[in-house]
Amino acid sequence: MADTQQQRRRLVVVGNGMAGARTVEEILTRGGGDLFDITMIGDEPYGNYNRIMLSHVLAGEATVDDDDLMLNPMAWYREHGVTLYAGDRAESIDRFAKTVTCASGRAIDFDVLLIATGSHTFFPNMDGLREPDGKLARGVFGFRTIEDTNGMLQMAASRDHVRAVVIGGGLLGLEAAYGLQTQGVAVDVVHSPGHLMNQQLDERGGRVLRNKIESLGVGVHTGKRTTSVLRNDDGTVAGVGFTDGDSLPADMIVVTAGIRPNVEIARGAGLVVERGIVVDDQMRCEDEAFIYAVGECAQHRSEVYGLVAPLWEQAVVLADVLTGANPQAEYHGSRLTTKLKVAGVDVAAMGVKGPERDDDEFVQFYEPRSGIYKSVVVRDNKLIGAMLLGDISKANFLTQAFDEKVPLPDERISMLFDMGTPSAETGAAELADDVQVCNCNGVTKGDIVRCVASGCTSVGEVCAKTRAGKGCGSCKGLVADIVEYAAGDALTADASADWYVPAIPLTKPELIDAIRRQNLRSVSEVLEKLAPEGEDATAKMPLASLLRIIWASDWKREPGALFVNDRVHANIQRDGTFSVVPQMKGGVTSPEQLRKIADVADKYSIPMIKATGGQRLDLLGVKKEDLPKVWEDLGMPSGYAYGKSFRTVKTCVGTDYCRFGLGDSTQLGIDIETRYQGLESPAKLKLAVTGCPRNCAEALCKDFGVVAIGEGKWEIYVGGAAGAHIRKGDLLATVDSPDEVIRLCGIFIQYYREQGKWLERTYAFVPRIGIDELRAIIVDDRDGLVAGLQERIDEAVAAYVDPWLDRAEPKSPAQFTPALPLLPLPQVPVR
User: Fold this and answer.
1) Where does [4Fe-4S] cluster bind (predicted)?
2) Exposed (0-12), middle (13-18) or buried (19+): which is 710, by Cβ within 10 Å?
3) Rounded Cα distance, 218 and 493, in Å
4) Fewer CB within 10 A of the terminal residue: the chain, N end or C end?
């Protein structure tokens, strides 16, 4: 064993992004764990994550906790014997002493060095872009990191009517615009070239894409060069100015004007650097024997790549070379094919954008009304370029043709439509094994077929093992087709799709039954008794929520199983402070409450008080250690604005003052909130009661909405939404009394609590179950479940305890002690 240890070389990887981590994965699969002691250095305080998924996070389609975002969580490094220094920046390399020195002062020795520092957002020279100390002005963001994304989300949520300008109309800029628009931000895209995505699309393609983007409500300004960031007197962003003297107002500016390789550390070390770090066909740095570079920081044969597919190809070659699996392996560059979804629009592009010679064949189909554009460029009977927008059903065939794996048809138009070439339906069988199916994660058809052959016979298993479909998602349909083709009759449904958490092979009702029968009261007990492979960190928060649903206050609290919001009963903010929202039932308050709120804000120097959409007041910027004192001085119950729980009931004026009121919506809203306040649920619950069909309280787009329609009758709607998703609620029932509204509200909430998936909002839950089925179960009691649901909701209501009473007896010594952030965070501005 000692000899083996002596032979192990020290491999240091500078950069913990997608390229560096993928290379380490490839090295490990080739037995590299026995050859190297591997150390990775990353300047972000996380494991390796998928930057492509940040667009989904910004659009509200995913969260930073999603497995699809985090490719290699912290546990992965421990499990594979990889030392990770996260949140520590590598600052210098000494090639001769073979050491890397970090910002912390840590010096790390190496025998082999891999530089995978990626790239950074390019910020053009613009007046007002930065503060005197060089930091970006308040309200200016790149779109490159989790921190960037969280910053934009926090600003979008900080107030109503936020306006944003996105500088750069390429892929990233349009994704940023789309994400912000879904968050309710008014967005304009400014692009200095004449058409959008000019790197991938020609002018006509750009025109079709522009129509699509503008139809989403996003303003598009092409041919405009931004020269300045306009600022308010307090230093915040006011807008942008252009070379022609025009300007656009904005509260937020997102710069997506391109990326630049991170080469400063390589240049400082004396390595050969041009646009990127110059490498040879084995990814070795020029004139170096033991230093390599991969990814967006590397320049190979004069090319620097900004897409992920070349990164994966480079990682495979370097892993073969370093482990000796194939010492002669070489990377010869990549033929780029792009297949992705831009702001909801399918796009595929490869090769040249248009004819370059007089004898080039050029076939186009242009239908702007339907949002479809297609073109191909053929030279010497070879496909040298193709572009598809809106309809990419022929992308698989064109990809094979571009790689010269299939002959071109004599009728060139049939390359764009199903006129003799393989159809979309048969494309999965006809694809060559080396065709890349998932560009985001470098997964080929052959990888998927081999995965099926190894025993994975469901789409979920294949996606989990290969990561296919875990990026932009545009390939999911094809992945499913290939799995079905490869598995044949052995194809199985994803059993885990119905599990409440991945670690425990039980549906939610089965899991609830097992927890009750075995009297399991803590997350650790549930995992110990019911998880076959032991603890799973991703299961802790959903299990903690479920235990609170089952046992109410009688569950065993374990701080490690709770998100910080649930530990301290307040909503953490961008700068590490918290927001406090006291309860105001039905949106009704009093002079006494308002005076208390004002006095508390003065006493604790709370920088912002904001009216919320739920008709309450939000105190923003409260220090963690001040939370108990703030709650005590307010003397008001928690409004639960931080949890996955029953939050608030919005109401209109009702009958007391409104000339049109048909029912006392204010009192009914207060009664509903009084009864069901704070109930734990799979996701947050927002309710509303409106006194007439004019719907001033927006009851039709709430999780549970009630509308007075006259003659003492009330309509009940469920499954509505008006956030990132827009959905009118479905009519569950029409009832004759407020008491019946309150009863059915409790039955619906309890059924949702017991049947809803973790983080599944009612706007997804109701369509999944079906309104007719819900009506049969909840209203008609077809299955005899209502009595049990009523009993359990009564027990939950009786066990209610205001969580802000923790101020008297904290659950742990650290519950309300200060917690400094791991890295400097931007401060929320004082207004």
Assistant:
1) 652, 658, 692, 696
2) exposed
3) 40
4) N
Which candidate, 715, 691, 689, 686, places its Cα nearest to that of 703?
Answer: 686
Is there a shared CATH topology between the 140-257 domain and the 436-488 domain? no
Length of the chain: 831
The CATH code of domain 9-119+261-323 reads 3.50.50.60
Summarize pLDDT for 31-60 with one digit per residue, the tens. Answer: 999 999 999 999 999 899 988 888 888 887
What's residue 724's pLDDT? Answer: 56
Spans of all domains in the chain: 9-119+261-323, 140-257, 337-415, 436-488, 497-562, 644-801
Q: At the fourth CATH level, which superfamily is domain 644-801? A: Sulfite Reductase Hemoprotein, domain 1 (3.30.413.10)
Taking the model in full, what pTM does it have?
0.60
Q: Is 297 known as a binding-site position?
A: no
Report the 3 state secondary structure along 371-382: CEEEEEEEECCE
What is the rounded end-to-end Cα distance, in angstroms, of the chain? 64
| pLDDT tens, position by position, 178-233 | 999 888 899 999 999 999 999 888 999 999 999 989 988 899 999 999 999 999 99
Phi/psi at 32 (nearest 5 deg)?
-65, -20
Residue 725: its pLDDT value, please? 66
Q: Is 463 annotated as a binding residue?
A: no
Q: Name the class of domain 436-488.
A: mainly alpha
Q: Let me know: does 466 contact 447? Beta carbons within 8 Å.
A: yes
- Closest by CA to 51, choosing from 188, 256, 214, 351, is 256
438 is in an annotated binding site: no
Which residue type occupies 58? L
